[in-house]
Write a structure and sequence with these properties.
The protein is an alpha/beta fold. It contains 18 helices and 12 strands. Strands 2, 3, 6, 8, 9, 10, 11 and 12 form an 8-stranded mixed sheet that branches. The N terminus is likely disordered.
């Protein structure tokens, strides 16, 4: 069930309508209802046979279909809505780039968006390939949210008609609580965890103000990444993206052109023909009109720390909050690895800004192992050699005390060191030997 909850609670760059559909399907899993393909086909009264299409080459132009909900690895949504696997698109894109018969690439996009995870990586692959071959993204019906994140990475974005929808730049997630369902089913959950934030957000309980703030900080951070990436793709100032494009709205037809989301309106066939005519020459991009600069100006992008602090205080605050939360979690994870006798080691790495909790645990265990090995060596070295008393022939001479066994003394001294360590005390090997000898007497 944890994987189902992860899907519902994951950050999405998608339209609200499609997110609602996705949530409904996955919530049926939580209710114990059948939600396999056969059951859904019976419910909807139709057969789902949507499979991700292979790309085709038309007169030297590779057309890669990007149709449906986008995810890193596709599941039932691929069958229901013609979903898109980031991994498959990436493989097809690389293949087309390496194909000597392909002179240009078209991304045929009709998507409401999808998961944030995987979208950024695929967009980077496309953006880094600019200049090798002309790349055009075509909004063929709908290019929303993660679909636009992907499309903006191309050399040019084209809309197929005056009714084409484009935009919806934003990030959304949701917290799904199932405590009432558990209560009705007589289920009681007890979370056992380590780490202050590990169960701050849990579906087994109502969302607290702190939990909501934690989720909001993550969403704000991903939104800032989305916004700055689109600005980089278009080569414009981040403020322009923020004010004109990235308020979550969907733009239709010429509205998308005016907002700077696309350069022109042309049917898919025309775009392919233009690329065939252009050959291997990079497609000229029509400057995006905006109030911030004239078409003749060459817009620049300033995403330095100073510019973000000055021009985007809200985004800067989101970055700082995310960074502060991550550093607090790291420090707490390091502190949790403390063992008696290794306090100085923990203090030395707690505030270095880089050591993780797992790395601190390895360091402490290594130091503890070294300390124990040294303690054993000290005990062996310090153990006194007790001579065996000579026996006299005089029957009246008092009998000498039995000699103390060095091996037994050494073993007992080792136990004393271990016992004191459990109590948080440090004792030297020589002191342990003396105590062992005293006990033996």
């Amino acid at each position: 069930m944890s994987k189902v909850i992860d899907v519902v609670n994951a950050p999405w760059a998608i339209t609200q309508t499609m997110l609602g559909t996705i949530t409904d399907i996955y919530m049926s899993h939580l209710r114990g209802e059948r939600s396999d393909i056969a059951a859904l086909e019976a419910s909807y009264g139709k057969t789902f046979d949507n499979k991700q299409e292979n790309y085709q080459v038309i007169n030297g132009v590779a057309v890669l279909p990007v149709h449906g909900v986008m995810a890193k690895r596709m599941n039932m949504f691929q069958a229901i809505s013609g979903g898109v696997s980031h991994e498959i698109v990436a493989a097809d894109f690389r293949d087309a780039m390496a194909n000597s018969k392909v002179k240009a690439i078209v991304l045929d996009v009709d998507s409401p968006g999808g998961t944030v995870h995987g979208t950024a990586e695929l967009a980077d692959i496309i953006y880094q390939a600019r200049g090798e071959k002309p790349i055009t993204a075509v909004a063929n019906g709908l290019m929303a949210s993660a679909g636009y994140w992907l499309g903006s990475a191309a050399d040019e974005v084209v809309m197929t008609s005056r009714t084409t929808e484009i935009g919806s730049i934003g990030v959304v997630t949701q917290h799904v609580e199932y405590s009432k369902r558990d209560q009705a089913n007589g289920v009681t959950r007890t979370d056992i965890y380590a780490g202050e934030f590990k169960r701050l957000v849990s579906g087994a309980k109502a969302l607290s103000a702190e939990g909501k703030g934690y989720i909001q900080a993550q969403v704000d951070y991903l939104y800032a990444v989305f916004l700055s990436t689109v600005a980089k793709h278009h080569g414009i100032n981040a403020e322009q993206v923020h004010t004109q494009m990235a308020d979550g709205r969907i733009f239709i037809g010429e509205q998308g052109i005016e907002a700077g989301l696309a350069t022109r309106i042309a049917p898919l066939e025309q775009v392919i023909e233009d690329l065939v005519t252009t050959g291997s020459t990079r497609v000229a991009i029509t400057p995006r009109a905006s109030a911030a600069h004239s078409p003749k100006e060459t817009p620049t992008m300033d995403i330095s720390k100073e510019s973000i602090e000055t021009d985007h205080p809200d985004l800067a605050a989101a970055f700082r909050a995310e960074g502060a939360t991550a550093e607090s979690q790291r420090i707490q994870a390091v502190a949790a690895q403390a063992l008696p006798g290794h306090e100085a080691l923990i203090e030395s790495v707690k505030y270095d800004g880089k050591t993780t909790g797992a790395e601190a645990a390895v360091l402490v265990l290594a130091a503890e192992k070294t300390a124990r090995q040294q303690a054993v060596a000290d005990i062996t070295a310090d153990a006194p050699v007790v001579p065996v008393a000579a026996t006299g022939s005089d029957e009246d001479e008092p009998e000498a005390p039995a000699p103390m066994d060095p091996a037994a003394i050494g073993a007992r001294a080792k136990q004393i060191v271990a016992e004191q360590a459990k109590l948080g005390h440090t004792i030297s090997a020589s002191q342990a030997v003396k105590l062992a000898q005293k006990e033996a007497k």
